[in-house]
């Protein structure tokens, strides 16, 4: 029997209803949202950079579009808030600016912090920082206070911020440092607000919803601050079907704002929805309406008029020109009935939620064309041109012509046909970035009067469902996601790692050892190219120089066998070596010596290896590295000469081409330079790391060192404990030399050859340790550059030699397989290693929904089961029938009833009869030929070679068998059937209306389904989830009820599970995906919630509290991080820690980290926090936190240990 809800709700929970311990979690975003809501073009990084800004609600991504049209990401920065709108404040030479921001544009943001934020990009920190904040309202989402929409004057002198309705604010920009705003005014003012609302029917008030606004530029001959700014506003008044165009003037001297005019024609014509200023026109603007576009002359703001009308419904030829002289003129070409239809359509569109994928009218074509998005041609000061996208997916170009007889508007033929775009951006080079709301965007190229597809802009919005494939610590974890909606529905495979193209398939490595002359039976310590045609092999007893034959290389010597010569040290064994351009470095141990060798030509094909320098060492070496010879490269801009100067030498008088780096067992890293007259120690850095308790870390001996150049020279050192260190040279000034240190602080070189050790007064320099990161054990890797592989990488992994080529970095490492329709549900079937996908909105005649097997390696649909005409699949789950598995599916036929289906998954012999499908009609299980070209078996002619007979983990599948569906049971239930869920391995749950049932299979017979119990809720059941014995029932009112089943009855209980009472709280050492929550969002983001111990949580909470208030790491939009994360949370619930906030700690220098950790925490968390650093911890320490379970934590960064947290590293690398 079922216990009624009233009886259950009246029961008082006992003490055991609550868990004895609180769960603690760390939230890590493994895939940032890909839905671009705003797109902007500006000089963000420098006065000459052409940067694109993507606003993505919770993050800001800075990208650029290269010469090849590929969008490449510069940074993707979380903002720890919700972005409402973004705009660019252009740099203005007439205003006073901070010298550091000279020539750079600023980014303006409105957010739920209630502040107007001005942001600048810091190239050194590689992120945005706030210049200043202006408080507009309290945090949160208010309708009647500014914080919804932005508009910026083209000169950069004025900014407008509007509320959703009834109010806006104007600001005057001074451009002086943090005091960037010198004047501000609210309209209506606080005193006028109540009066304005009470007289909302008055035509001259700002009462209603603000749809669009823009500034109208004035005469450029006037000084920027000598005129009163004019703001055009499209306003929807309450209860009205039309929108008004109002012109507002800010009288700066009188400190007042007033409505000075209203465009009357906007009332009589179609519904106006956007007002857009024409750049460099001084008073012209486009008013976009349903079905047309009006070119407005607003130079006389008191008498606005339309000078040209373009009819969008008859593009591209039907255009009308009308001149309006008086305000009383009306547009007579649209009758009232047609206007009402258009107005209702646009109003319905405005109420339409783009993320509501279940809207039945989402795919319908409205009767009127309207402009969805637009973008002006950059830096066109003569005849402005605009690319626009209309709601039918067509792209057109509009050009304004200044002719002798007046203004003309020219509109092109259709340039491209695709999907309607949410945002367009025209950038230099003729590229247009087109962003789509629920599908991949694209970069289009304007060529010969046409738009041509160039490259995609990945967007996996929305993620409707996902399946996580866990390979049990085999490092192959990946996520299969249902992405997009019809017609852009697709299967996305989200993997870890960098984006690479594997070239080893079909490419053979040829063994040419005998033709080169290397010794094959020795342990080679190092090898490399000494100079053209000369190869060097170093092993434990000998350094060998070889001249390969033409059998090894086309430019080899013309002899039958290679020519070799060798050098060996006296009575010692070589333990390390490195080959550079024109010199060789080897070292020995016990005794410790360093040999620098050269090669000279004695006669044709005969060379000699000789000693340049022979040095004794105080400490044994652990690694040697010689930088690659510097080659002249073409620089992209005028800064090439400066770059060449900066890379020509490390310090004055030191040649980079004669430099090498060593790591010692001291431990330390040192940079040395050799010359004919001696060896110079250029720089040295001692390695000494401790944890937060002051204990010295072991394994700090460097195993690999490299000298690299990015913006300047750095020394990278990889340690045995898996940590990567970055050193830099000390900051030098124009008047001070480099720091002089006592050579006792570095590894002493004991000179055994007179004058071999050159000591300079200004050397060696002390290297500064500026960054530490744990990356895990590394392996051998070297770059490869050839005609076939210009960006090749050769590396050793898992006892194999791999050759890969680096390709352009993708913004999202998500492989796409386009599938028809909208993918609603996805499951991974372990036995078949296939994906089960539930699709809707198909165009298969009368069939609009099906379930299909999909090959995860190729995206091919192998077999499908089609639902009845008019039937829509809602949910499916794999359920157990005895020892077998079946697929339980619920469908919706009408709003009053639905069906429950049980499908058996059969592995049958491949009939090789072509593409086949199953029909879902009750009582029929026959196979029918499919006309839709779906693959039912592994047909070689229809599958690529890479996917034939393969599986995600590389196991070959049986090509002679195929998986198919067999209908075993079907039954129609009354009520909306929306949810199904497996339960306790032998039952399943299914809902119909406001009732849900516990069902099973009597005698393990899939053709019989029995209802064992039922439960009722007050509202419609929309979801069912289980955890152990607990059943969570979600309803249409966002309520959650909890039940448990006891062999014939339900009991309604509070949200606590009995299994949690036995001390099974979340632990640090989790087993793969167990205890880890993975969640996705409609905006395309994906995150994991990692359980922490209480000790770990408290320690990281202390760090997060300090980071949230420090100026280098605080939320850039001005949010109070504690208030932002606590909104709508139950009182007393522990907040989930934010990995994005904590990861910032790793991007700081050691001194900055020390400053943050030594600051006082906020008052609200002082009582529960402990000191993070003991007094004896050195300044450059405090990088690592050790958990009680000995699992190294870097605040949620990449963890590569083979322990319970391997999943974090797997997902974070993507």
Automatic annotation (TrEMBL):
Organism: Stylosanthes scabra
Domain RSE1/DDB1/CPSF1 second beta-propeller residue range list: 499-805
Keyword tags: Nucleus
RSE1/DDB1/CPSF1 C-terminal domain location: 850-1049
PANTHER family: DNA REPAIR/RNA PROCESSING CPSF FAMILY (PTHR10644)
Subcellular location: Nucleus
Family matches, as Gene3D superfamilies: YVTN repeat-like/Quinoprotein amine dehydrogenase
Protein name: DNA damage-binding protein 1
Keyword Glycosyltransferase set for record: no
Protein family: Belongs to the DDB1 family.
Domain RSE1/DDB1/CPSF1 first beta-propeller: 36-450
Pfam families, A to Z: Beta-prop_RSE1_1st (PF10433), Beta-prop_RSE1_2nd (PF23726), CPSF_A (PF03178)
